[in-house]
From TrEMBL:
This is citrate lyase holo-[acyl-carrier protein] synthase. InterPro entries: CitX. It holds the Pfam family CitX. It comes from Clostridium oryzae. Keywords: Lyase, Nucleotidyltransferase, Transferase. Signal peptide: none annotated.
Length: 172
């Protein structure tokens, strides 16, 4: 089982790589986006749908702050990186709002990289409470480290959220 925190670590490494690659491209913040999917079989139709839909939503919301984007498809599954001209802390707050409230966003792992100071912005730095488990509402750290929910239950919920989104019962 791949835990949420393992997923985060993978994305943070990818983000640092992208920030090297993007040197010379002017942007004050880079965000990364992937789906939390608990198995090795991560490059599948569902994760692609999640990333595609979430990308469209963020493009609309970020609008003219968005300077460039790079899509990366690997064994790890689909991921997208966006370079922006914005305040890193405000952006972290906005992304955490999506993670906490949006029907698709709650399965996304969105990291915010301050490309001026070269640091990952954490929830704590932005004054936001820690992330909750989507399934039971308890501390995500607790559920994730204790592997409280089965792979089967998590994947079922990821599927269910996508159906809910498609049916237009948006909770956003
Ligand atoms: Zn839980």
């Amino acid at each position: 089982m791949i835990t949420y925190f393992q997923e985060r670590n993978i994305m943070i490494e990818e983000l640092v790589d992208i920030s090297d690659y993007s040197k010379g491209k002017n942007c004050s913040v880079i965000i990364s986006l992937s789906v939390y999917y608990p198995t090795a079989d991560r490059d599948n139709l569902l994760t692609k749908k999640y990333v595609n839909e979430m990308t469209k939503i963020l493009q609309n919301v970020l609008d003219d702050k968005l300077l460039w984007q790079v899509f990366k498809d690997s064994n790890h599954g689909p991921m997208i990186f966006m370079g922006l001209d914005d305040d890193a802390i405000s952006l972290k707050k906005l992304m955490a709002y999506f993670e906490d409230n949006h029907v698709l966003g709650k399965w996304m792992v969105i990291e915010v990289f301050d490309n001026i100071n070269h640091i990952i912005i954490t929830r704590m730095m932005a004054g936001i409470s820690e992330r909750k488990c989507v399934i039971c509402g308890d501390s995500l750290k607790k559920c994730s480290q204790g592997e409280k929910h089965s792979v089967f239950d998590i994947i079922r919920e990821i599927n269910r959220s996508y159906v809910e989104y498609k049916e237009g019962i948006e909770l956003f």
